[in-house]
User: Fold this.
Amino acid sequence: MRKLGLIGGMSWIATAAYYEQINAAWQKERGAPSSAPMLIENLDFAGLAGLESDADWARAADCLTASAQRLETAGVGLLLIAANSMHRVYDAVAASVSIPVLHIADCVGRDMALAGVNKAAVVATHNVAFGSFYRRRLVGHGIDLLPPDPEVTAEIDKIVYEELVAGRVTRDAERALRTIITSKAQQGAEAIVLGATELERVVDVDANVLPIYSSTRIHAAHAVRWLLGAV
Assistant:
């Protein structure tokens, strides 16, 4: 049986969403009381938050590659990094193991391309919204992206790092996200990419002014397809 490996803890809120969504999708296919075969290494986000310098990111790469290698040794056949921002060190992680690592932005880009989306906006923290490591993956699937807005990303940073990773969900955050999404629609976006794994907690993915592509939900769905042998 195939086994999935999840590098989590960045934040644990996001990892919990992955765990729930992967198991729910697996059980839908296999029936109750089946659970998805996976191993999770829950890293301490306290040592991986607020990364800025190249040395900081090199340290993060070392931490995640060590985790990936431990999971590979434990017998998993596919790895997921359960955080959009940590895909900045994806290349180092993928090079450190002999098993595939499923890139979150590639999963989102493939789904958007299949749906015929041409232009989208990435709603994410500053690191992701401005990061070429993320944007070039989406563009590689033929998706034109609106330019990132520093004021919006600053607001998202505050919501994610001061509220959502601590388990706080507020009406103010929900209203802020609705305003941001409406603004992106007015700027010509055909769809929204939720590029922070926690944002699904304050955005109604299934009922909004634009189609919402939740990176967490899509990444998890692609992982389940692999578990089921569909890819």
